[in-house]
C-alpha cells in the first residue's frame, strides 16, 4: 500500500523531467491543459445534476429500500447475503452513496467478517454505471447505450455473486 | 436514458405527492447541491490530470505509454482512429491503476472520437462496458477503508476481488461482442 502511493508523485516528477530535457515549457503546457478542465465540467454538469436529483428522490422516497426488499430473494438465491443488497443497488447510481453504505456494513459487522469481505469484493468489482454513462458520453449527441447498460449491470451482478462465492471458499 | 429517467422520477414523485409533499423540493435541492459539490471536486481532479496530460503530450510521452496496451485496444475496438486508440490506452491504463479521475478526461475524449467514426454503437458500448465493469487491479479505496477499520486480513480480499472484476469485465466484453455486432464493411461491393 505504501509503495502504491509513490506512483503518482513519481509520475509527475518523471514527466516533468522528461519534458524539461525535451525543451518543453512545462508551465505553459500545464496551464494550457488546465484550461480544458472548465469546458469539460460545464459539459458534464447538467447530466450530473439530473442524475443526483433522481438519486436523491429515489433514496428519500423509500423506493430504493422497496426495490431492495423486492429483489432480496433473487439475490439470496444466488448466494449474495441480504445485507449487501443495498450496496449493490446504490452502487450503479452513486459513488459516495455506496462508500457510505460500505462503511456502514463494515462498522456493523466488523472488518474481518464474511459480510464485510463480500461487501468489499462487490464494491471493488463494480463501478458507478449510470454516472459513467452520463459523464463519459456527455459530449456525444447520439448515445446508443441502452443495451450496453443492461450488459454492464448484468455482468456486475454475476460478478458480485461469484465474488461472494470466492469469499466463502478462499 | 430518457425513459429510465422519466419512469423513476414519476414513481418517486408519486410517493411524495401521496405521503410527503413537503419533502419533494428539499430532495431535489439536495441533489442539486450534491451535483455542485461533486463538480467542484471534479474540477480539482481534472485540473491536475489535464495539466499533466498536456505536458505529456507536448513532449510526446503519451505515445510510448499507450504502446503497451495498443494490441489489446485494437482487438477490442473496431476503429482505425489513431487518436482514439491513444486515448483509450491511456484511459484503460489509468483505470487499471485505480486513477479513475485521471481516466475520465481520456474517456470523454475517446467517446467523442469513437462516436464520430465507423461502428459508433459497437465502440461506444465497448468503452462503456469496459469502464463500467471496473478493470482496476488493486482495489485501493476498499483496502484502505478495511485497514482503517482494523481488519487483520484485509489483503485476503485481493484474490476474490481480482477474480470478480475479471469475471465482470470478460462477461461484459463477451456480451458486447455477441449482442452488439459490428457493422458489416460495405466496401466489399465490387
Task: Using brief descriptors, characterize the structure shown.
heterodimer; A: 2 domains; 9 helices; B: 190 residues; 75% helix; 0% strand
Account of the protein in words:
The complex is a heterodimer of chains A (170) and B (190). Chain A starts with 6 loop residues before the first helix and ends with a helix. The radius of gyration of chain A is 20 Å and the shape is globular. Chain A is built from 9 helices and no strands. Helices cover 75% and strands 0% of the residues of chain A. Chain B has 190 residues and is mainly alpha-helical. Chain B has one domain (34-182). Helices cover 75% and strands 0% of the residues of chain B. Chain B contains 9 helices and no strands. In chain B, helix 2 crosses helix 6 (100-116) and helix 6 runs antiparallel to helix 7 (120-132). The two termini of chain B are 40 Å apart. Residues 186-190 of chain B have low confidence and may be disordered. Classes of the chains: A mainly alpha (170), B mainly alpha (190). Chains A and B meet through helix 1, helix 2, helix 3, helix 6 and helix 7 of A and helix 1, helix 2, helix 6, helix 7 and helix 8 of B.
Structural class of chain A: mainly alpha
Beta-strand portion of chain A reads under 5%
User: Which pair of chains forms the biggest interface, and how many residues does each contribute?
Assistant: A-B, 92 and 93 residues
Taking Cα atoms only, what radius of gyration of chain B do you get, to the nearest Å? 21 Å
- Specify the helix fraction band of chain A: over 70%
Structural class of chain B: mainly alpha
**What string, H for helix and E for strand, traces the elements of chain B in order?**
HHHHHHHHH
Gap from first CA to last CA of chain B? 40 Å
